Amino acid sequence: MAFDNWGPQDLSAPAKRQLPEVPVQRGMVLEDVQSGWVGEVTRVEKTGGMHIVSLEDRRGKTKSFQLGYGFLLEGQAIRLMPPAARPPASGAAAGRTASGSVRVQGQRAQVAKASRIWVEGKHDAELVEKVWGDDLRVEGIVVEPLHGVDDLKSAIAAFNPGPARRLGILVDHLVAGSKESRIAAEAMTVPGAAGNVLIVGHPYIDVWQAIRPKVLGIDAWPSVPRGIDWKTGILRAFGWPHETAEDIGLGWQRLLGAVRSYADLEASLLGRVEEVIDFLTVP
Description:
The protein is of the alpha/beta class. It has six helices and eleven strands. Helix 2 packs parallel to helix 3 (about 180-185).
């Protein structure tokens, strides 16, 4: 018998509601109730015994908050929890990483080397991390988004490449005669680039297209008319929200969530990423 239930009670008071507990994930769009700040999760870290989440708004500004109560997800109040432990990626054999490599057991991630992999944007970086992240941590190679390649030559010059400081760069829509092919050719004229910088690319307008259509339950990626932002057009064709930056972020997370291993990606991307990793890790 629960004796603390005895005595006067307010029978009109609403029953206490248990908020859903949701593990935080990068790309999730949240609202902090107290401040009204709305942003996409870009980083989660543990400091001073607390888990801290960083939310980036549509203007690129970032604020940090402690995990717990006080967040809205798609308008629903939640209790934001630490990241869930990752289950082994389906499609990857036991003892292998999502990239298909033999998993190295008992080895800690290497201290980051000076060499880097550069990709065009955040979505490219998240896709590479999801499939090749385990391998890259073993090798100590960091993936960094460039947020575009228009100033690639200057970026390479500032990096100052050399034999112990190499660059592998993955470029979208790197096909003959494209603007990107001209930018890549010009970038390779930077002193020190020859032999120390490798620029490769895939033929797709955006890295989204490197996800095999059948993984998404479609026969082919929708065609987007000229003059319409490609990502917006894709989400519209899927019948998904597409009006805001938050919609784009949520749409990408739905697509990324369908990727479990290298088998879910097109060979034209797989080969180029493997080529870059080999360039940076093979003596």
